[in-house]
Amino acid sequence: MHTLLKQEWMKAVKQNRFYVWALIAFILPIIVLTTLVPADQQLVGYYSLGGAGIVVAIAASVISALTFTQEFNYGTIRPLLSRQYSRLEIFVSKIIMIVFEYILVLTSAVLGTLAGRLIFQMINGSTGTSIDWQPFLFNQVMDVIMTLFFFAIVLLVSNLVKSTAAAVSIGIVLSVATSIIAAITTFLVQFWEPLRWNPLTVEAFLSQFNGRQVQNEYMMNFFGTDVWVVWAVYIFYLVVLYLFTYLIFQRRSV
């Protein structure tokens, strides 16, 4: 597995060039926070990572889509499978590397945000630049956890299509469409209550989770059960999606 992960890292650097996304995610908030965001809006800018949030989301779409489709389009899956590695090992190594790349890009956006904040303070003073670190860092952790669901959907689609361009396009569209579909299904719950347990609605509610009592009570009232049950359902959906994706990957022709 260690060798597989090393190979996936080399592909991430040489083929996907994910470091470009990380660099953009670092530079963008510095520019935005120091030149475009006024003092009274700085705090809002921090929680949106100085505009780098959209860069991180697009990077998630592109990285996850390319990781599998390029393997088949470039024909590199054949020599990989001819070695001692099973498809399960290859699949797991790719998932690990996708998540790792995403965390690096997200971390770069956070560091860029903090650098932009520091530069703004040096130029304009510290008024309006205080950060409540616990919810700020908690939001980043939740972002990674909830993005696992998005990865599952994109990987499922990218293993169904053969075109890299199609996979990337679908991934970007899904980054927007999933939230829209979740809003629609949440609205339709009033007409059919079991619909509240659909995966998109569950993901949408948990993406707002902040651990506070008010949010917990809101979720409990909506789902009619404890918060841990909602998390258990979310984990179940993740397992099913990744399992289904692996089954498609396992049967995909090389």
Protein described:
The protein is about 80% helix and about 0% strand. It contains eleven helices and no strands. Helix 2 runs antiparallel to helix 4 and helix 4 packs antiparallel against helix 6. The radius of gyration is 20 Å and the shape is globular.
Provide key terms for this protein:
about 250 residues; mainly alpha; 11 helices
Give me the secondary-structure topology.
Layout lengths: L1 H15 L1 H18 L6 H6 L5 H21 L3 H5 L5 H38 L8 H26 L5 H25 L10 H8 L6 H11 L3 H25 L3
Number of strands: 0
Poorly predicted segments: none
Q: Give average pLDDT, whole number.
A: 82
SSE order, one letter for each helix or strand: HHHHHHHHHHH
- Fraction of residues in helix: over 70%
Q: Helical segment tally? A: 11
**Overall 3D form:** globular
Radius of gyration: 20 Å
Beta-strand residue fraction = under 5%
Largest sheet: none
> Span from first to last CA?
21 Å
Structural class: mainly alpha
Summarize the structure.
It contains eleven helices and no strands.
